[in-house]
Design brief:
Length: 86
């Protein structure tokens, strides 16, 4: 789907997740989503959060945390490696 504002608003949360783009309303990413999105291990993600190299998660309950999707997307776009041609 192209990225116009009207089309972004019509995407469901599932479609946004499948496309790897933030949804119009936003959502929380859980640790499994972070691992799948970054390819990093749980311990590496936790270490990078502790060292301030990744966004901090938000406590959702006493035993549950999540990362706001747009915070992660902003971080990911800043840390994306530039592509080089062979």
């Amino acid at each position: 789907m192209p990225g116009s504002t009207a089309q972004r608003e019509r995407r469901t949360l599932a479609q946004s997740k499948q496309l790897g783009v933030p949804s119009a309303r936003g959502r929380f990413l859980r640790l499994d989503d972070m691992i799948a999105s970054t390819g990093l291990s749980e311990s590496t993600i936790r270490r990078r959060v502790r060292e301030g190299e990744m966004p901090k998660p938000i406590a959702l309950t006493k035993r549950c945390v999540g990362w706001w999707e747009s915070d992660f997307a902003a971080w990911a776009s800043e840390h994306r490696s530039p592509r080089t041609s062979d």
